[in-house]
Known about the structure:
The protein is mainly α. The protein contains 10 helices and no strands.
Amino acid sequence: MLPEITTPPATLALVALGAYLLGSVPFGIVMARLFGLGDLRAIGSGSIGATNVLRTGSRLAALLTLIGDAGKGGFAVLLARASIGADAAELAGFAAVFGHCYPIFLRFRGGKGVATWFGTLWALSWPLGLAVSTTWLAVVAVTRISSTGGLSAATLSLLWGWWLAADASLALLAALAVLIFWRHRSNVARLLAGTEPRIGQK
C-alpha cells in the first residue's frame, strides 16, 4: 500500500532535506568525543551507533547515543506530521534514517540505522514501534548480537505493519527494511563466518 501524496513536491523536497540533515547528526561520534572514548570508527565494528559506543565500556555514552539517534527519527516524523501531514511524516522518517546511514557530515559513512529506524516507527505508530522493538529485544536477549536483532526486526516489520494496520504504509516499511538489510551486509558476512561481535564485547 502506497501513501497518499497530498503535499506539494517542493514542500516534500524541503522536508526530505531537513530530515536528512537531522538524521546526519552523528550522536555516536559526538558522545565518544565528549566522554573521551577515542576514535569510534576504529573500535569494534567501526559503526557510529549505540551498540559500538557500548563496546568502549561507557554505558552512559551508549544510552545517550541511543536516545539521540532514535530521537532524531522520531522528531523528524512528529514535526513533519504536525506541520504538514502524513505523507511528509513518512518521507521525513525515511530521510532521517537515510541521513544516519549516509551522513553528509561524515562523508556519507554512517551507521546501520536501527535506532533511528526505531524512533521513526514509534513516532509513526507506537504499536508498530513496540512490536518491532520487542522483536529486537527478544532476539538480542537470546543471541546477544545486535545485528541479528535488527535483521530479524526488519524482516518482521512488514508483517507487524500489516497485522496492526499501523499508520505507516507498507511501501515505507519495505523501503526501510531494504535499507536496514543493505547497511548490515557486512554483518551478515560476519554472522555467516561466526565472527560477529556480541553486545558488551570490547
